[in-house]
Design a protein that fits this description.
The protein is mostly helical and 109 residues long. The protein has four helices and no strands.
Amino acid sequence: MSDCITHSAPDPVFAEPWHAQVFAVTVALNEAGRFEWPDWATRFSNTLKRHGLSRELDGGDDYFKAWVETLEGLLAEQGTAPQQDVKQLCQFWEEAYLTTPHGQPVHLR
């Protein structure tokens, strides 16, 4: 009779779904040739330094907010997603979720 080995589910790599989503978008843009990973790493490091985040981060919101800021800056610089367009889209989403009844899907108009 062999010993029975039980496996528990691994801990999630990302604390929040949006962390995984922004990571996946960044990787997809890199794989599509929109930027080189060493350039991304330098930009992200500069964002962390600018915010004084020199301590070891654990992948929480502060880390991924810096990640989003870096990605938005890169895409704005390339002309892919100008800051005004991103700001306007954020406002549309905020209006949509604030006016959507609880439990209903959020739709942009």
